[in-house]
Design goal:
Distance between the termini: 12 Å
Strand content: under 5%
Radius of gyration: 10 Å
Mean pLDDT: 92
Number of domains: 1
Largest sheet: none
Number of helices: 4
Structural class: mainly alpha
């Protein structure tokens, strides 16, 4: 399960199927050096993305 406090880099490594979802939401951070330091919640906030909606979509996608 993906949580708001997980680092974006960890999400991309542990759940590669989550990358297209991140990109669809405009989070291209996985290619940035900060991905290993930035939490999903922080990245979503910076990009003005609804964290609850993002988490729902990520977890729905990685479970299927």
């Amino acid at each position: 399960m993906i949580t708001r406090d997980m680092k974006i880099g960890d999400i991309c490594r542990c759940y590669p199927e989550a990358v297209p979802v991140l990109k669809r939401f405009g989070l291209e951070c996985m290619e940035c050096q900060i991905a290993d330091l930035e939490s999903l919640e922080h990245g979503a906030g910076v990009h003005k993305i609804d964290i609850e909606e993002l988490l729902r979509e990520l977890n729905r996608h990685v479970k299927s």
